[in-house]
């Protein structure tokens, strides 16, 4: 019996079936991004999923629907709960920290109450210093019923970007809508607008990278729920880990002393954030930075910021909340240098605890007089 024709028929039939499924996936666009085992079969994540080098137990996902569906803030809000959402960059996410030693986790562990309700703090940080990314997060938060949004920014957050980061590319439509609605002069907008995904990118094959990460994220939910953490290692800490000596380079992103930083800062995005938040109270916070004391510290505060640039940024940032009557906290020098992991923004667990205690007192005085 000759099985070759039948085998060829089976292969052709399988290929046609795969092609049909592939095209149907692109046409139907099933809501895979909104499907999640988190907050149902396993607890929601303490923070947004983000890969940690070559660690097989972490995964980077940058689709907002998938990210928020996996986060514990998407669980049903308890009647006796006051939700405080922290939005910011990698320092808020907790770079180098376990999920239980981040700012949000240690603040939550203080167990503060207001009017008989429990204050619950949620980590909505994500390792991209982008104010546009923050606007998308604030917009997504509206459906999660936050009572207060704490928005952490620094100079890098507000600076116009020369290149698109993966998060903005993955959330292209939301990004363009935000830029156009609030007339934000984002430099790579044209590139983003031209980067329109065709039908191929919507098919099963075109979505294979995202779908693989989506599957891994769901699978890791079982591991993370068993271990109680989303990162399986934490940096070892000692006092004064950050190098106290800094570069003598006085430039900042090609700018020199005497240049006006406001031309390169997306200040309109600050206005947009307050509009997007709507009736939800929003507190703008200039986050702490490492302040060097060694060689060339008279020129630069740290590896990121020359003194002239950061001082000008603080002047601009302080003036805008004052003229708009925004709630604003300038916390730039509130954490001693010995508590920093590196010579920029990232803080050790003991420093995060100190920061949480400082913020908790301020928050209680603002929302729970």
Keyword list:
6-stranded mixed sheet; 9% strand; alpha/beta; 369 residues
Task: Present the secondary structure layout.
Elements: H1 4-28, H2 64-70, E1 81-88, H3 90-93, H4 103-108, E2 113-114, E3 117-125, H5 131-141, E4 148-153, H6 155-158, H7 166-170, H8 172-181, H9 189-194, H10 199-202, H11 208-227, H12 267-277, E5 282-286, H13 307-324, E6 327-330, H14 349-367
Parallel strand pairs: 1-3, 1-4, 4-5, 5-6
Antiparallel strand pairs: 2-3
Helix pairs in contact: 5-8, 5-12
Along the chain, the helix and strand elements come as HHEHHEEHEHHHHHHHEHEH
As laid out across the biggest beta sheet, the strand order is 2-3-1-4-5-6
- Could you describe the largest sheet, including whether it forms a barrel? 6 strands, mixed
Estimate the helix proportion, in percent.
40-55%
SS content category: alpha/beta
Instruction: Tell me the overall shape.
Output: globular
Distance between the termini: 88 Å
What is the count of β-strands?
Answer: 6
Tally of separate helices: 14
Low-pLDDT sequence parts? none
